[in-house]
Design a protein that fits this description.
- By secondary structure, this protein is an all-alpha fold.
- Helices cover 93% and strands 0% of the residues.
- The chain is built from one helix and no strands.
Length: 54
């Protein structure tokens, strides 16, 4: 079976994989929101600047 150091290595491996998985899920769910908000704010500023010119 496993030695104790192999068991700790396996737990460290599972921990790193799990952290990576949840980080990927977080970035996939949050990045489109940030990018969409950036373009929406940019569009609002352009629209406001156009209204100021008129």
């Amino acid at each position: 079976m496993f030695e104790f150091d192999q068991y700790l290595g396996f737990l460290a491996f599972l921990t790193i994989i799990t952290i990576g998985f949840w980080l990927m899920i977080f970035l996939i769910s949050i990045l489109p929101y940030w990018i969409g908000g950036y373009f929406f704010e940019k569009w609002k500023l352009k629209r406001e600047a156009r209204r100021q010119e008129e």
